[in-house]
Design goal:
- The chain contains 5 helices and 2 strands; from the N terminus they run ααββααα.
- It is mostly helical.
- It has one domain: de novo design (two linked rop proteins) (Up-down Bundle), CATH 1.20.1440.
- The chain has a two-stranded antiparallel ribbon with strand order 1-2.
- β1 and β2 form a beta hairpin.
- It starts with a helix and ends with a helix.
């Protein structure tokens, strides 16, 4: 159980990194401020894919990271009902991130380092949850 608990602690850390990243982008978007990065970043953050129904995609990501952070902390503290929430959120976020990386590569033809950091965090979270699931099945 100790090993699995550390996976949840690590997931909470990764979620905190993702929250800081998406929170920064959300604040910059809402302020109408320029994000300091290359032209490719501006192409991604200024694309029609950066806003969903009037809400910055980064704000949706920040909200998702908050849920994951809370679920990871709860799971680390032994609250078993947090694991399915964490697993479903991490999976959905990783799949969404893969779609967004596809859009950057093949539709927008530009990559945003902030977006790639978030995608890395999402895929890492899904990987951690997969490892925890495998350990739980193996160790019982």
């Amino acid at each position: 159980m100790i090993r699995r608990r550390w996976i949840f602690v690590l997931a909470a850390f990764v979620a905190t990194v993702g929250l800081a990243d998406s929170g920064y982008l959300t604040i910059k978007h809402l302020q109408g401020s320029y994000v300091r990065c290359e032209d490719e970043c501006s192409a991604v953050l200024g694309s029609k894919y950066a806003v969903v129904a009037g809400v910055p995609l980064a704000a949706i990501g920040a909200t998702a990271y908050c849920v994951v952070l809370a679920a990871a902390v709860a799971a680390a503290l032994g609250y078993g009902k947090a694991r399915p929430v964490l697993a479903s959120m991490a999976t959905a976020m990783a799949l969404t991130s893969l779609w967004l990386v596809y859009l950057q590569a093949f539709v927008i033809h530009a990559f945003c380092p902030y977006c790639m950091l978030s995608a890395t965090a999402c895929v890492t979270l899904a990987g951690l949850i997969l490892i925890e699931w495998l350990l739980r099945r193996r160790l019982g």
